[in-house]
Amino acid sequence: MQLARVVGTVVSTTKSEKIMGLKMLLVKPIDIETFEEKGNILVAFDAVGAGEGEVVMIVSGSSSRQTVLTENKPSDTAIIAIIDYVDYRNKRIFSKFEPENKPKKE
């Protein structure tokens, strides 16, 4: 499992029948120690209704096929939770309810 931030969406009108109806989002992993985005952007199937800017939990490999929406689907990464807050070493390092954590409007 890995924390990540939703950074975009993927739209595909032509796709395999097995993934019809699945929402695809772009996610960027987060380093838990610095809470900064790191690594490559990934495409993940959304199993929980996440939106752009939200911090989410992602799983990959066979774990990504363990949700009701992704079971028996050709999935390598899935969003399985939307994170409300993270406490690390007795300190709150993220809260989606704090204004500084809201996605910035461009």
Structure description:
It contains no helices and 8 strands. With 106 residues, the chain is an all-beta fold. The radius of gyration is 14 Å and the shape is elongated. It has strands at 2-10, 24-31, 36-37, 42-46, 55-60, 77-82, 85-88, 91-95. The model has no long low-confidence stretch (mean pLDDT 90). The protein has a single domain (2-11, 20-101), classed as OB fold (Dihydrolipoamide Acetyltransferase, E2P) (Beta Barrel). The termini are far apart. 0% of the residues lie in helices and 42% in strands.
* CATH top level assignment: Mainly Beta
Number of domains: 1
> What is the architecture at the second tier of CATH?
Beta Barrel
Helix content, binned percent: under 10%
Largest sheet features: 5 strands, mixed, barrel
Topology:
Layout: E1 2-10, E2 24-31, E3 36-37, E4 42-46, E5 55-60, E6 77-82, E7 85-88, E8 91-95
Compact description:
Helix content is 0%, strand content 42%. The protein has 106 residues and is mainly beta.
